[in-house]
Here is the input.
Amino acid sequence: MRSNLNKMDTTVEMIDIIALIQDKVMEGVEHLYQEKIDRSKVALNTTRKEFEGDYTVVVFPFTKAAKKGPQQVGEDLGQFLVENVDQIKAFNVIKGFLNLVVDDAYWKQFLESVVNSEDYGQHPSNGKKIMVEFSSPNTNKPLHLGHIRNILLGWSCSRIFEAAGYDVIRTQIVNDRGIHICKSMVAWQQFGNGETPESTGLKGDHFVGKYYVAYNNEDKKQKAALEAEGKDKEETAIMKSARDLLQKWEANDEEVRKLWASMNGWVYEGFNATYDKLGVRFDKLYYESDTYLLGKDAIDKGLEKEVFYKKEDGSVWIDLEDAKLDHKLVLRSDGTSVYMTQDIGTASQRYDDYKIDEMVYVVGDEQNYHFKVLFEIMKRLEAPFANGLYHLSYGMVDLPTGRMKSREGTVVDADDLVEEVIAEAHEGTKERGDLGAFSEEEQKEIIRKIGMAALKYFIVKVNPQKRMVFDPKESVDLQGNTGPYIQYASVRINGVLQRAAKEGLDFSGAIDPSLNLETIEKDILLQIYEYPNVVLNAAKDYDPSVIASYCYNLAKNFNKFWHDHSIFNAETEAEKIFRLKMSKIIGYTLKNGMDLLGIEMPERM
Here is the structure.
């Protein structure tokens, strides 16, 4: 059988060592103990570092058939595999775990098969189409730190799905209507004096966000005045004005719609500038102003099928108690939509637009219940895509100084955070004096890449479900588990390959069959071998931190190898050729892995 190492033709036909071991264990159990077993019973893991071996077979499931203890079963199977599998040269058994040593010849052949594969880890098309919804901001304020986690998770997952063979559509639904939008609008009407982003020099989303803060400040002041008069239950004048704007918007008032379009346009320009800084893009935008009426047809059909029920006041509900949820409103008594109605309609619209197999919603964990209800409703409506829905839930992001409060104007803007990490990267390189040989323009570009790697990696290296604290200073550390640390390993590899080219070293020849590999070299090749499966696992788990952890460990292993073993002063020419080839595929793998996280690898640092 052939290993699916990448989508390119490899120069050498490779045997999938994992599948081979599993097949031979099945064969061995049948031969030794006269019992057929399923592949699912053959648990195979990489061997722990404190033991000798490459792969470990758990033998406990076979003891019943063998009527022997795990130690003896391990000895029996180990001997069988050494005798019947050319690629297995030795074994040892530790407390019921069979550790297998793969012959050096296999790893050398593997290296030959992938050394020129620039897109290593890219899987062929699996024929499936997946939509990833992320960002989805409100148009009344700038993108902030919380959005950054959402955006980076969504973008990374979309890139990982592509590498796993999916056809990916990236989308967002822009929350461009509602009372929160009208709050910014009424504040601009009352306090703006006709100013614009151009006249103030402010970025569009920051400009509109300023008026959202101004609204809340005025609302607080008016509430305090009402309370002083004993009218604390009355609505403030500015809130009444915002509601009036919303009613006029829904009635298609020409002037209100014109102001709404202008202010949203300012915000979109600002959002797009931030997306460009973050290196993300979308294939399709949906707007709540277009989708807020969707879903009513689905509710009518659901009523006919008795999926929903109607109360005496005319409101429509669904009973989800048998799914350990509760009764959920899906249409108000006046016939207007709620968010659930819109989401039902939007999901159906997306399927009609793209015929997707799966749909991933990247939304904070405060919406966990909402998506449980939505997905259950889609199943009961028998939507063709209902089993392909997934909520990528993530925890909040805090700063070392604490939480953010957007309506009070204490939110950490995405743009400010980007500038801060780039400034931290600049300060670090200035202290080390690393960039003195580069032009000012080159320095600026290198520092940008370092800063963005610091930000992106620090965010995505944390499992999405975990709440996290983002520390800009820690993120740029060249010694820790950071993006710049991995970039530095990549730059070191570039230096090796550039030196080899400069010295005219030709390492395209075959690897010496008699060459003995160092333990660290085998460890690295085993890591490289695992990369295509790491991509699949990250896609399966919707978890970019799997890729981040892999890249860090590979970079760490390369740096250890670099310090402990010379490449250019290797004892033999055969060792030099092997190590140059290995460096080359490590470089490709690091670049490809970090690219899935949206991180660029500089040529020099």
User: Anything to note?
Assistant: The mean pLDDT is 93. The CA atoms of residues 114 and 571 lie 25 Å apart.
